[in-house]
Amino acid sequence: MPLRLATFNLESLDCAPSDPSWFEARAAVLRPVLGALDADALCLQEVNAQHRAGAPQRSFLALRKLMEGSACAGFHLVHSTRPGGAGPADVHNLAILSRWPITAHGQIHHDLVPPIKWRPLHGGEPLPLAFDRPLLHARIDPPGEPPLHLINAHLRAPRAAFLPGGRQDGRWRSLSHWAEAYYLAGLKRQGQALEARLFVERLFDAEPQARIAVCGDLNAEAHEAPTRILQALPEDMETDAFATRALTPLERRAPPEARYTVLHDGRPVLLDHILASPALAAACKEVRILNMGLADEARVSGPVKGSLHAPMLAIFD
Fold it and tell me: 13 near 62, Cβ under 8 Å?
């Protein structure tokens, strides 16, 4: 059975009751993209949740409205929740949509990698470096096919993290404060990549030939540490002993000139990825990155109707 798998950062998908026309303007841009993907399974990042009067927790009003009338209408939906809370966070949730039943799902947030306790170099109490968002796992069962495991990830962007006392009047107090905070952001990003890799190892332990895909906005290119931790390719490990557990970056199947998902100040970068286990990668026939007309995130002015990230689509036989 053919399978079309996609990942797409929706760039803070939201809707405001005070201005419903703005959501409709965004939906008019995003729905044709969902139609072009025509995905059977779709990993989404940056999905905001909205408050409803009288409801105990937020819900995905904007996402469900976007799905209506799109290629994803009627799809099964699972989503992340705010760590430590019962409902979704207000911003930057993860969601997985599937044409086929989702038979199991859950999120991973410091289940395998504990927060690092960091003592600020400029003084103060130890600071736990918690990951900004969880990982979202779903098991999908296509009819008559082995299960498909999806891990949806949105790793921290390479921007300076919170540092107690690091800023004053909205500005960094010193270059050394900023440099320490930037270093902490890197620890968070690589730490969550490690947690995703360890979860993949558990899936392989249970099923050596598992069909696994880690999808999402990794905020890192293929040569950077978080992506390399996830891939665990033989050239990095300097041995073929674990090649059956490596994750192949499927962007290598796209034309070289199309291998970017973000434009930053005129420079094309590949921050969004689909990393596939050997059993899944062997069936991949084509990869498309829908980046035609992509706006430059460093040069755009005003609200963005579509997204500053291009979606990636992998087609399997």
Answer: yes
In eight-state DSSP terms, residue 297 is T
Domain boundaries, the chain: 3-316
Rg (CA), the chain: 20
**With contact defined as beta carbons under 8 Å apart, do 281 and 248 qualify?**
yes
Helix or strand or coil: residue 264?
Answer: strand
Check the CA dihedral 58-63-66-69 and report its sign. negative
Confidence of residue 116 (pLDDT cuts 50, 70, 90): very high
The per-residue pLDDT for 24 is 94
Of the candidates 215, 199, 211, 195, the residue with the CA atom closest to the CA atom of residue 44: 215
By CB neighbour count within 10 A (0-12 exposed, 13-18 middle, 19+ buried), where does 37 fall?
buried
Contact predicate 15/23, CB 8 Å: yes
Which two tokens mark 259?
């291998």
* pLDDT band at 2; cut points 50, 70, 90: confident
* Predicted confidence (pLDDT) per residue in 33-46, tens digit: 999 999 999 999 99
Span 253-259, mean pLDDT?
Answer: 97
Q: How far, rounded to the nearest angstrom, does the alpha carbon of residue 204 sit from its chain's CA centroid?
A: 21
3-316 domain in CATH 3.60.10.10? yes
The DSSP annotation for 208-251 comes to TT-EEEEEEE-SS-TTSHHHHHHH--HHHHT-STTGGG--EEGG
Structure-block tokens of residue 40: 């059977």
